[in-house]
Amino acid sequence: MIQNNESSPILSGAIKRRTSRSVIIAHGDRQVIVGGDAPIVIQSMTNTDTVDAIGTAIQIKELARAGSELVRITVNTQEAAAAVASIREQLDRMGVDVPLVGDFHYNGHTLLKEFPDCAQALSKYRINPGNVGQGAKRDSQFAQMIEIAARYNKPVRIGVNWGSLDQGLLARIMDENAQRNSPWSAQSVMYEALIVSALENAQRAEQVGLAGDKIILSCKVSGVQDLIAVYRELARRCDYPLHLGLTEAGMGSKGIVASTAALSVLLQEGIGDTIRISLTPEPGGDRCKEVIVGQEILQTMGLRKFTPMVIACPGCGRTTSTVFQELADDIQTYLREQMPVWKTQFAGVEAMNVAVMGCIVNGPGESKHANIGISLPGTGESPAAPVFVDGVKTVTLRGENIAKEFQQIVLTYVQSHYG
C-alpha cells in the first residue's frame, strides 16, 4: 500500500548536536574550541619518533597544512619529553601555530614533573586512566598529572581504551554484575566499565582541581557497533565534550570504511565534538590521509566545509576512455593543493562544487547543478566538452588542452566569485 503525505515536507540533516561544555585548546593567539557550538574539530597524530625533533616538526607541519587542527605527539621517554619544547620552537619559527597534544602512558606523571618545558609547550594532555599505574600508585600518579595540568592551565583528554582498561575497575564492575538478579552479558559489562572509567576519572580530575571546562572524554574501541553503543550511552550520561575515533581502525579501505560507518552514525545523532581517523598507513604512505578522510566525512555529511568538492561519475561502458578519470583526479588534486592559499584569499571557496562527468547521459544535467561542470565525450560521442558555469553553458572545449583550459576556468571562477 502506498501512502501520500502532503501535510509536511521531507527534511534532511543531522540531529542538533548534544549540549556540551566548551574546552579551549590554545597556543599563543591560536584557539581551537572543542564542544559547545564550535564546529567539529579534526585532529591527527604523528608516527615519527618524537626524539627526532626535526622530523616530527616537519610531519606536524604537513598534518597542519592538510587541515589537522590539533596534532598529538607521543611523549614516552625522557628524551622525547626533552624534545617537545624544541619541536614547538621549530613550528613557531615556521609559522605553524597548531596546538600540540602530548600522549602519555605509564610514566606521564614523572615526565611532566621532570620536564616543565614540555608541560608548558604542550597545549593539551591525553591521559589514559588504564595506563597510569597500579593499586595505590594509580590514584597518586593520576592526581600528579592532573595537578600539573591545572597548574599550567592545560586541558586534558581522559582517553579510555578497551585494550588497556583499568583491570581493578573492570573486576569491580564484574563483581557488581554478579550480584544482579539478571546479570548482564560480558559485552555489556565491558561497555559499562569503559563508560564508568571515563566518568569516574573525570570526576576525580575535578576533585583534584582541574576545571570542568578543561576535560574532554573518549572511550575508544575497534568495533563499529561497540563504538556506537558506548558513545550513545556516554553522551547520555555527561556533558563533557567527546572525542570520537575508532581505535586500530585498520589499513586502506577497511580502515576508512569502518571509521566512516561508526563515526557517521554518531555524528548524525549529534554526538561528537572532535574526531580522529586512526588509519594504519600503507608502507611509505602519507600520514595526512587520515586528515583528508576526516574532512571528507564531515563535508559529505554537510557538517563542515574544507575544500571544493569534485563530483565525478563512476564510469561505465559508455566511458571507455580514461580522460574523465584523469581530469577528475587532476582537478581534485589541484583544488586540495590550492586550498592552503585560497582559504586566506577567497572566503567561501570551500563550498564550491565542481563536476567532471564522462558522457551525455548525466553529464550536462549534473554539470548544471555544480558551480562549474564539464561534460566530457563518452565512447562514440562528438569530441567536444561543454562547460557549464552556475548552470549556464559558457564554452565548449576541444583538442589536447582540455584539462589545462578547464583548470584555468576554475581558477578564474574562484578569483571572480570569492573573496
UniProtKB/TrEMBL annotation:
In this chain, [4Fe-4S] cluster is annotated as bound at: C313, C316, C359, E366
> From its record, what is one biological process in GO terms?
terpenoid biosynthetic process
Gene3D superfamilies from the UniProt entry: Dihydropteroate synthase-like (3.20.20.20), Sulfite Reductase Hemoprotein, domain 1 (3.30.413.10)
Q: Does the keyword Iron-sulfur apply?
A: yes
Q: Can you tell which superkingdom this protein's organism belongs to?
A: Bacteria
| Substrates-to-products reaction catalysed | (2E)-4-hydroxy-3-methylbut-2-enyl diphosphate + oxidized [flavodoxin] + H2O + 2 H(+) = 2-C-methyl-D-erythritol 2,4-cyclic diphosphate + reduced [flavodoxin]
Cite the annotated pathway.
Isoprenoid biosynthesis; isopentenyl diphosphate biosynthesis via DXP pathway; isopentenyl diphosphate from 1-deoxy-D-xylulose 5-phosphate: step 5/6
Q: Which GO terms describe its molecular function?
A: 4 iron, 4 sulfur cluster binding; 4-hydroxy-3-methylbut-2-en-1-yl diphosphate synthase activity (ferredoxin); 4-hydroxy-3-methylbut-2-enyl-diphosphate synthase activity (flavodoxin); iron ion binding
Q: Which family does it belong to?
A: Belongs to the IspG family.
Protein function:
Converts 2C-methyl-D-erythritol 2,4-cyclodiphosphate (ME-2,4cPP) into 1-hydroxy-2-methyl-2-(E)-butenyl 4-diphosphate.
* Annotated protein name in UniProt: 4-hydroxy-3-methylbut-2-en-1-yl diphosphate synthase (flavodoxin)
